[in-house]
């Protein structure tokens, strides 16, 4: 629920006078799928916010899916009553236009706050950033306890009520109830890549740890806005292995040194190594607070907290780079060569390079297809290489040392992208043969 009123003359010309019983007062915001209005409920004499869908989007199979997702938003949010979650009051239909009635939050979104402060050349204090992230995590904790994964946590969905003390989490449009995931794929196509956890971005099953990633990404954005005269020791964020370029992490910026380990763990692409709940993330933030003002001899230097290191994989070979370029050309055309040339191919493994380059392909479905195709090519090449080596077949029931080596290598290289299931899939396949090829 965006809460910034649209300025400028003529805003009310195209606004309907009523939706259901509600009197429309102003447009608060408009997006690709719908509009949010400020309205008045004459029965209880209070201001409300009403979210509607564009009628032209409600036709055909896609329209049916969008309508189901819209109704799911109302159901999801209505299940969760908490001071840090925008309250859904009603779901209804006015003619062929569905709508959701929510409490009206008089204030500003975090997205608008950041834009305003940048335009004014002002920062956001650590105290205010902590107030925002604390309210957000409390709201997410309540949602998770209701069995709801939000899946679209971002700056424009976090609202600050007038006075700055009350934080509200809004827009459960991508939310998934744990007991029903039928709408997961519909939602997965609509999120904001910058805040998306890798498992959401590439269409894997997402749980509450996806919200941990998104909340940490927002916290990173807030900490980047600290005023220049801040006295806390600050450092660069170490590069996080296998992080998608689509998440737009600014490694050139400086953040409070004490928070660096918290940010790194919360943003881990491997959800098993991430904080396992928003409560764990909040606990880590609280534990880091006493260290904010601790000066040491390396406080002004780049810190190197304990970070999971990538597997010891050699950089991409000329053959692998050529294969990536040829595959990419099927998705982008002749510009594939130019795209690959922009990357530092001498320091990245072939898989890391392929994952980063996938972000240059328009459309999440096509990005996923590129990644799947590359993984198949990678496995095929490993098998071809194995064929060149002499084969010694073990006794039935015993594993082949070369097979073990290949399995371990593939598992290490793909664990960041398909997580622990990579080893399960590979083991299942290997149990059917004693040959490496």
What is the gist of this entry?
This protein is of the alpha+beta class and 437 residues long. Helix content is 40%, strand content 14%.
Give an overview of the whole structure:
The chain has 14 helices and 13 strands. It is α+β, with helices and mostly antiparallel strands. Helix 3 packs antiparallel against helix 8, helix 9 (318-332) runs parallel beside helix 11 and helix 9 runs antiparallel to helix 12. The chain folds into three domains: 18-103, Phosphorylase Kinase, domain 1 (2-Layer Sandwich), CATH 3.30.200.20; 107-291, Transferase(Phosphotransferase), domain 1; 318-430, no CATH class. The N and C termini lie far apart (55 Å). The strands form four sheets. A six-stranded antiparallel sheet has the order 1-2-3-4-6-5, with helices on one face. A three-stranded antiparallel sheet has the order 7-9-10. Strands 8-11 form a two-stranded antiparallel sheet. The radius of gyration is 25 Å and the shape is globular.
Give keywords.
13 strands, three-stranded antiparallel sheet, 40% helix, disordered N terminus, Phosphorylase Kinase, domain 1, 14% strand, disordered C terminus, alpha+beta, six-stranded antiparallel sheet, 437 residues, Transferase(Phosphotransferase), domain 1, globular, 3 domains
